[in-house]
Structure prediction request, 155 residues.
Amino acid sequence: MTLQIEAIGTVVGGREDVADDNWGGVECIIRLDPKFPLDVVKGLDEFSHLIVTWHFSKASPDDVALHARSPRNDPRWEPSGTFAHRNHRRPNQLATSFPRLLKAAGLDLHVTDLDAVNGTLIYDLGPYFPQMGPRGEILTPAWPGEMLREYWATS
Prediction:
């Protein structure tokens, strides 16, 4: 089955270039399509965080890698499969982020800690409900903690 979806907005501002680290403190705007009525964001400013689905728009379909590889191609970490990574090498090149909502100004949502670059297309968003977050003990291997140590550092 093929799903055809349309972007609902665009990232404005923030970083211009894709980078592996130093995303902390980056502020940008999620500018929703002006075709939407203002009511679509009513009540959203009562939430601290959003769930945002976006497209790795600077990636090429040729970047998709359907095989096991070491994270960031670093041989210190054992190879793992495409779906064990969170990067642009995924089949649909989609990502999900959890930015902090600073304010809603009309259809402009001012956020921080959205790890998407200026011009990125946004395909969906909603409020983060802690009640809908992971349940039970959360397990991860050691490599994400090592690899992402500087991810939210400020530049």
Observations:
- The radius of gyration is 16 Å.
- The CA atoms of residues 15 and 96 lie 17 Å apart.
